[in-house]
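**User:** Once you have settled down, spend some time on the protein underneath, comparing sequence with structure tokens, and judge whether sequence predicts the tokens.
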Amino acid sequence: MNAVQMQSARKMKRAQTILFFIVLLGLVIWSSIGAEFSFGALFSGIGESFRFIFFDFLPPDFSSLSQLIEPALQTLYMSVVAMVIGSVIAGMLSFLAAATTSPHPYLQIGVRAATSLFRNIPVLIWTILLVAAFGLGAVVGTMSLILISIGMLTRSFAEVLEEIDMGQVEAVRAAGGSYFQVLSQAVVPQFLPGFIGWSLYNFEINVRASTIVGMVGGGGLGFILQSKLKLFQYQEASMAVLLVLVIVLIVEMITNRVRERII
């Protein structure tokens, strides 16, 4: 490529970059108008937000801590059950969803499509639908978390299976191993570290999501938080938020330590 061609290519690239930013700016302006967003409205509400947080919401009412222990434990129970059941079901489905282990391509497509439905519908929507069918309570929250866990973990586990060393798989097949022997001797040992790591990560996500689930009737700390906000008991709600933060940090610390030791 001569100097003239290089200069022409640079000019074209510069023009494409300028055009990209013009289109991006136009998209931002158009979206802001559609969303009725403005910096004036944003800054006008900052003072009121600070007043609410520092005068109404804070400090937390520590005397209400004893009332929050049981809902906090319920949040953990929901997260653990959803993680275990979701991991087991997703683990079995992932062998059907991964290209390296699925017995048939059509079965792979069907499983991926079904679990994609679970994953792409937000947990909030699942909870609202299940509350309408089963009523309020931790059972509904647990069911919502299980559905989301299955959707997320099936895809994650399938990707782990698709990244395994196929040399070990071919070696077992060449030795005359059956489909289940290939899975047990060549696939599962490589799959286990990813299975444990993603399951623990899902537990962290469930703890966070359980608060949102609870606010629409799924039980746990989220339900208590929503109740306190509706009753304008902001300092007790602040204590619930603080407790959620502490639980999330503790769970994250524990799961990180477990991952470091096991994986």
